[in-house]
Amino acid sequence: MKGLPDALFVIDVENENIAVQEALKMGIPVFGLVDTNSNPTNLSNFIPINDDSSKTIRFVLDLLSEAILEGQDSARKQGLVQKLDGDKGPKVFSLNVAAKATPKPDDKSSKDAPEGVAEVKYLKKR
Prior knowledge:
Number of strands: 5
Structural class: alpha/beta
Radius of gyration: 17 Å
Largest sheet: 3 strands, parallel
Mean pLDDT: 72
Distance between the termini: 19 Å
Strand order of the largest sheet: 1-2-3
Strand content: 15-25%
Shape: flat
């Protein structure tokens, strides 16, 4: 990583409180899953949910992954994401997102789809 991240997403805000505090000190927005034992006061956005259940975490990450990939595809179609040529063009950042195919009710082929990592690029706010 060449610089600071534009944002931090945390699965267990209480358990990762040191990372959250460091990010907040540096002005990095923090998003995360918040259980009843956590204080979401300083977070930019949060999802109130049981952060101890692996099934719940997988469900949320699947939804987030799908939304990020759809947003990236939409941005690409609108011409908002471009390749960087040296210092020319818009600044972009990349985000590695663990993604697993979410089966549709009538789609039997994706039930055993392997997990993977998708690189997603977005425009960096200036």
